[in-house]
Write a structure and sequence with these properties.
Layout: H1 3-9, E1 19-26, E2 39-45, H2 49-59, H3 64-67, E3 78-82, E4 85-86, E5 101-107
Parallel strand pairs: 1-5
Antiparallel strand pairs: 1-2, 3-4, 3-5
Protein backbone atom coordinates (compact mmCIF):
# COMPACT_ATOMS: atom_id res chain seq x y z
CA UNK A 1 0.00 0.00 0.00
CA UNK A 2 1.38 3.47 -0.88
CA UNK A 3 1.56 6.45 1.44
CA UNK A 4 -1.24 8.13 -0.51
CA UNK A 5 -3.51 5.10 -0.32
CA UNK A 6 -2.70 4.75 3.39
CA UNK A 7 -4.04 8.27 3.94
CA UNK A 8 -7.10 7.76 1.79
CA UNK A 9 -7.94 4.37 3.27
CA UNK A 10 -6.94 5.14 6.85
CA UNK A 11 -4.12 2.56 7.00
CA UNK A 12 -1.33 2.46 9.59
CA UNK A 13 -2.96 4.88 11.99
CA UNK A 14 -3.06 7.77 9.54
CA UNK A 15 -6.18 9.95 9.52
CA UNK A 16 -8.72 9.28 6.80
CA UNK A 17 -9.17 12.12 4.30
CA UNK A 18 -12.21 14.28 4.97
CA UNK A 19 -14.67 15.42 2.35
CA UNK A 20 -13.96 19.09 1.64
CA UNK A 21 -14.79 21.77 -0.92
CA UNK A 22 -11.86 23.11 -2.93
CA UNK A 23 -12.08 25.87 -5.51
CA UNK A 24 -9.48 25.55 -8.26
CA UNK A 25 -8.41 28.58 -10.26
CA UNK A 26 -6.92 27.44 -13.56
CA UNK A 27 -5.09 30.20 -15.41
CA UNK A 28 -3.46 30.82 -18.76
CA UNK A 29 -3.27 28.16 -21.45
CA UNK A 30 -4.12 25.48 -18.88
CA UNK A 31 -7.80 26.44 -19.20
CA UNK A 32 -7.64 24.87 -22.68
CA UNK A 33 -7.55 21.53 -20.83
CA UNK A 34 -10.59 22.34 -18.65
CA UNK A 35 -12.96 23.14 -21.52
CA UNK A 36 -12.32 26.85 -20.92
CA UNK A 37 -13.33 26.69 -17.26
CA UNK A 38 -11.19 28.95 -15.08
CA UNK A 39 -12.94 28.36 -11.75
CA UNK A 40 -13.77 24.77 -10.81
CA UNK A 41 -15.34 23.72 -7.53
CA UNK A 42 -14.67 20.17 -6.37
CA UNK A 43 -16.37 18.45 -3.44
CA UNK A 44 -14.33 15.35 -2.61
CA UNK A 45 -12.13 13.68 -0.01
CA UNK A 46 -8.69 15.28 0.37
CA UNK A 47 -6.21 16.12 3.10
CA UNK A 48 -3.37 17.42 0.90
CA UNK A 49 -2.93 19.51 -2.23
CA UNK A 50 -1.96 16.34 -4.12
CA UNK A 51 -5.14 14.54 -3.09
CA UNK A 52 -7.25 17.56 -4.04
CA UNK A 53 -5.53 17.66 -7.43
CA UNK A 54 -6.45 14.00 -7.97
CA UNK A 55 -10.10 15.08 -7.93
CA UNK A 56 -9.36 17.70 -10.57
CA UNK A 57 -7.46 15.19 -12.74
CA UNK A 58 -10.47 12.85 -12.68
CA UNK A 59 -12.59 15.60 -14.23
CA UNK A 60 -9.94 16.93 -16.62
CA UNK A 61 -7.55 14.11 -17.48
CA UNK A 62 -5.39 16.12 -19.91
CA UNK A 63 -4.52 18.75 -17.33
CA UNK A 64 -2.37 16.49 -15.15
CA UNK A 65 0.48 16.08 -17.63
CA UNK A 66 0.74 19.85 -18.07
CA UNK A 67 1.11 20.38 -14.30
CA UNK A 68 3.06 17.30 -13.16
CA UNK A 69 5.94 15.45 -14.80
CA UNK A 70 6.16 11.71 -15.45
CA UNK A 71 7.34 11.09 -11.86
CA UNK A 72 4.35 12.98 -10.42
CA UNK A 73 6.39 16.03 -9.38
CA UNK A 74 5.37 19.62 -10.01
CA UNK A 75 6.79 20.88 -13.31
CA UNK A 76 9.32 23.72 -12.91
CA UNK A 77 7.33 26.13 -15.09
CA UNK A 78 4.09 25.73 -13.09
CA UNK A 79 3.32 27.20 -9.67
CA UNK A 80 0.55 26.07 -7.36
CA UNK A 81 -0.78 28.35 -4.66
CA UNK A 82 -2.88 27.20 -1.71
CA UNK A 83 -4.81 30.35 -0.90
CA UNK A 84 -1.93 32.90 -0.97
CA UNK A 85 0.94 30.48 -0.26
CA UNK A 86 3.15 28.95 -2.95
CA UNK A 87 3.29 25.22 -2.18
CA UNK A 88 6.97 25.21 -3.25
CA UNK A 89 7.63 27.12 -0.01
CA UNK A 90 5.51 24.68 2.00
CA UNK A 91 5.31 20.89 1.60
CA UNK A 92 4.70 20.83 -2.17
CA UNK A 93 1.91 18.35 -2.99
CA UNK A 94 1.90 17.14 0.64
CA UNK A 95 0.79 20.58 1.86
CA UNK A 96 -2.34 20.09 4.01
CA UNK A 97 -5.65 21.54 2.76
CA UNK A 98 -8.72 22.68 4.65
CA UNK A 99 -12.36 23.01 3.70
CA UNK A 100 -13.24 25.97 1.45
CA UNK A 101 -9.66 26.59 0.36
CA UNK A 102 -8.55 27.84 -3.06
CA UNK A 103 -5.87 26.24 -5.16
CA UNK A 104 -4.51 28.31 -8.04
CA UNK A 105 -2.55 26.64 -10.84
CA UNK A 106 -0.40 29.27 -12.51
CA UNK A 107 1.85 28.52 -15.48
CA UNK A 108 4.97 30.67 -15.76
CA UNK A 109 4.92 33.39 -18.38
CA UNK A 110 8.02 34.03 -20.44
CA UNK A 111 8.99 36.01 -23.46
CA UNK A 112 10.22 39.43 -24.22
CA UNK A 113 10.43 42.22 -26.70
Amino acid sequence: MTALSDKVHGGRGRPRSSKIIVTFNVTGFLADFTNGEHKIVVDDQASTVGEALQSLWRKYVGLRDRVLNEQGHLRPHVNIFLNDDNVRLKQLLDTPVQDNCEITILPAVSGGA
